[in-house]
Design goal:
alpha+beta; Ubiquitin-like (UB roll); five-stranded mixed beta sheet; 2 helices; about 15% helix; globular
């Protein structure tokens, strides 16, 4: 099972998830072990779930049109929308303390 390491507010959270897991879906149904994941719409419209990928990004599919629209140049800095990612491999993510504005 994939291991997710999630950094937020100076703390690191680590947990295993089933393959093909969406972190925002799991957080929304309170079945995800990282309580500090910031999210809102879950549909790629608000970018509140934007995270910087620290490792494992090479295993992710290319950004979709929603990520390109919401993140723009931040894609080059390693940001992705957690709501648009289905985790199939180990990944390490960091979410800024303040919301990333589009």
């Amino acid at each position: 099972m994939p291991v997710v390491v999630f950094h937020r507010n100076g703390e690191a959270y680590r947990g295993e998830v089933k393959e093909n897991t969406n972190l925002v879906v799991r957080a929304g149904i309170k079945q995800f072990p990282f309580p500090h994941l910031r999210y809102e719409c879950g549909m790629g419209k608000c970018a509140r779930c934007a995270c910087r990928v620290l490792s494992g990004g090479d295993q992710l599919p290319p950004p979709n049109w929603k990520e390109k629209k919401q993140l723009g140049e931040r894609l080059e800095a390693g940001y992705r929308l957690a709501c648009q990612l289905w985790i199939e491999h180990d990944i390490e993510l960091e979410q800024d303390e303040l919301p990333v504005e589009a």
